[in-house]
């Protein structure tokens, strides 16, 4: 049975066909967040730390850490800040250190800049998920040797030099190519987590059916775990969280094993928790019952994040770090 093992200093999370759906928190990402961009440019990590703690309290099992900030004011002063290869490595290192100082979950190191991933690996503790490689030759030759050297799992995105195909068969073949090339570099299939690329259903009516079929093929034919940016399915639509909440259980039923998503949205976490129980990945419904108590508090006026943090505190949960030291590589 395919299992992709991720570790922090104190905690292990397994992504697998017979495991609970892995929620990877998406919010530590400055893309499209002008306020967070501005804070990071000023060296202010307060929102990052708040988002990290809230996501873990709400049920994130892994935290995605994305360093793709744009420092517009610094660009005007120093042209080096227009180059992501200059900006991202130092920022990624700081983000990783800040997040793992206050949380105990594994990390997903998210950057298109190889230097930023290398910088993260200098300070990360445990066994993170590298996000990501594509089927492009340049990316494969940059990322796969790095993952092999440090014995790390990697997200494989199903596009290549030709771009993102609307044909699901083409995206499957790109995934197959990445799995084969990874094996050549010594990275086994169980350490490949394929992102089959979720298209917006508002732009492509068959997008949902496409991804469900792709996930089944990736599981049955390649034996790999899968992930996606879950909110892509609802891009451009009203009531996006309702669409996401319907999509996630259907993807889980098709065999998807993780998603990069917003765990602070109660309706989406409720859908994931119910799906876990229905798939027999929640023994005795314990997680469902715990979440139901949090949702009862939400009905009484608390925000989901507030209620989740209160439940975590009442149950003795801690966001702080404890235990021995272990680093990738």
UniProtKB/TrEMBL annotation:
Question: What region holds the Pterin-binding domain?
Answer: 21-280
| Bias (Basic residues) | 319-329
Give yes or no: UniProt keyword Nucleus. no
Instruction: Cite the PROSITE patterns for this sequence.
Output: PTERIN_BINDING
Molecular-function GO terms, alphabetical = cobalamin binding; metal ion binding; methionine synthase activity; methyltetrahydrofolate:corrinoid/iron-sulfur protein methyltransferase activity
Q: Where is this region: Disordered?
A: 310-329
Q: Which domain of life is it from?
A: Bacteria
Name a biological process GO annotation: homocysteine metabolic process
Q: What keywords tag this UniProt record?
A: Cobalamin, Cobalt, Metal-binding, Methyltransferase, Transferase
Q: Name one GO cellular component term.
A: cytosol
Sorted alphabetically, which InterPro entries does this protein's record hold? Dihydropteroate_synth-like_sf, Met_Synthase/Corrinoid, Pterin-binding_dom
Tell me if Methyltransferase is a UniProt keyword of this record: yes
Any Pfam family the entry gives: Pterin_bind
E.C. code: 2.1.1.258
PANTHER family the UniProt entry points to: METHIONINE SYNTHASE
Sequence similarity: Belongs to the vitamin-B12 dependent methionine synthase family.
Protein name from the UniProt record: AcsE protein
**Protein species of origin:** Jannaschia aquimarina
**Gene of origin?**
acsE
């Amino acid at each position: 049975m395919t299992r992709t093992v991720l570790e922090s200093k104190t905690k292990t999370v397994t992504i697998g066909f017979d495991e609970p759906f892995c929620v990877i928190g998406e919010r530590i990402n400055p893309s499209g967040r002008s306020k967070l961009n501005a804070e990071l440019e000023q060296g202010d990590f307060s929102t990052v730390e708040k988002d990290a703690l809230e996501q873990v309290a709400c049920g994130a099992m892994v935290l995605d850490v994305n360093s793709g900030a744009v420092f517009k004011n610094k660009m005007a002063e120093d042209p080096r800040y227009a180059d992501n290869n200059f900006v991202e490595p130092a920022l990624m290192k700081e983000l990783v250190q800040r997040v793992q100082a206050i949380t105990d979950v594994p990390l997903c190191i998210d950057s298109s800049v190889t230097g930023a991933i290398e910088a993260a690996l200098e300070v990360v503790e445990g066994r993170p998920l590298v996000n990501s490689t594509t089927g492009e030759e340049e990316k494969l030759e940059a990322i796969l040797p790095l993952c092999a050297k440090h014995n790390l799992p990697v997200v494989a995105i199903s596009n290549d030099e030709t771009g993102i195909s609307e044909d699901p068969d083409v995206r499957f073949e790109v995934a197959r190519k990445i799995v084969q090339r990874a094996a050549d570099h010594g990275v086994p299939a169980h350490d490949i987590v394929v992102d089959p690329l979720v298209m917006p259903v508002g732009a492509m009516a068959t997008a949902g059916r496409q991804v469900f079929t792709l996930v089944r093929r990736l599981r049955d034919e390649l034996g790999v775990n899968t992930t996606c940016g879950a909110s892509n399915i609802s891009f451009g639509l009203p009531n996006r969280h309702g669409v996401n909440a319907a999509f996630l259980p259907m993807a889980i039923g098709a065999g998807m094993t993780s998603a990069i998503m917003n765990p602070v949205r109660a309706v989406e976490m409720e859908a994931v928790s119910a799906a876990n129980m229905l798939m027999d990945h929640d023994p005795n419904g314990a997680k469902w019952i715990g979440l139901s108590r949090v949702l009862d508090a939400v009905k009484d006026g608390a925000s989901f994040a507030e209620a989740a943090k209160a439940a975590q505190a009442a149950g003795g949960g801690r966001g702080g770090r404890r235990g021995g030291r272990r680093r990738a590589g």
